[in-house]
Design brief:
264 residues, mainly alpha, 10 helices
């Protein structure tokens, strides 16, 4: 629901107006500070160091409340990376089998009716999805249960394996969305906190310092949310494509095996 709101026309206009106002205010402050400094050019390195120091400072518990959003963003990112690593191992590394070469060799054994060697070939890669499915079909064929029984055995193993391939991948996208929304929520809260305390500051210089500090703190949550969300979104897309490619390869090669078993 949160993302739908921000993707709607009203949400985009509101968000653009918010950031536009902040940018205009920041530009005015920068011009004023440049004038106070006699027109001296800013050192980008020093500015970047101050940005990094400001982000790290906001992780400390403070009344501004930025830490209450920054730490959950870091936690969401850590969980997303952990899930992505586990899914990468299961989908890419654990199921890593040269499926065409494996199926070619398996078909040769099936055509020779040497089911023991075919099953032994499957046992050589016990963690691969295709060897597991193939072994179920070969065992049914070895018991002379008929083509229909072979198909049912492979379908049964497929129903067990497919959820194992795709499980938890959607959580990577969910955590990316959570990181984005936490960043936006932290920005809105930070701006509310800043403007709520603005009338309590009388001194003009102190008021300008309060505004610049508050806006910088509010922006830090959005920045960190996007830093966490972008790689998680890319990882979710990669894992979705990898799981789809694995399922397609399994379907293609299992059909070849079923056809070979039906002819034997």
């Amino acid at each position: 629901m949160g993302l739908k709101l921000f993707r709607s026309r009203l949400g985009r206009i509101s968000l653009a107006a918010l950031f536009g106002g902040i940018l205009l205010f920041s530009a005015d402050m920068a011009v004023a500070q440049a004038g106070d400094a006699g027109g001296e050019a800013l050192d980008p390195g020093i500015v970047l160091d101050r940005v990094v120091a400001g982000v790290l400072r906001d992780f400390k518990v403070s009344p501004s409340g930025a830490w209450a959003f920054l730490w959950p963003i870091v936690i969401a990112f850590a969980f997303g990376i952990g899930i992505s690593g586990e899914r990468y191992y299961s989908i890419v590394m654990k199921s890593k089998v040269n499926m065409k070469k494996f199926t070619d060799q398996l078909v040769k054994y099936v055509e020779a009716k040497d089911y023991d060697k075919a099953i032994a070939l499957c046992d050589a890669s016990p963690s691969g999805a295709l060897p597991i499915l193939s072994k179920a079909g070969l065992q049914a064929a070895k018991r002379n249960m008929g083509a229909r029984a072979v198909q049912d055995a492979i379908d049964e193993e497929t129903l067990k394996l497919m959820p194992q391939i795709t499980k938890r991948i959607s959580w990577v996208s969910v955590l990316a969305n959570i990181a984005t929304l936490l960043g936006l929520m932290g920005t809105i809260f930070g701006l509310m906190y800043t403007f709520a305390g603005l009338d309590m500051v009388v001194n003009p210089k102190a008021k300008a310092a309060h505004l610049s500090t508050g806006i910088a703190t509010a922006m830090n949550t959005t920045l960190l949310g996007l830093i966490a969300a972008i790689p998680l979104t890319l990882l979710a897309q990669y894992l979705n494509q990898a799981s789809k490619a694995l399922v397609d390869d399994i379907d293609e090669n299992s059909v070849r095996l079923i056809n070979a078993l039906s002819r034997s």
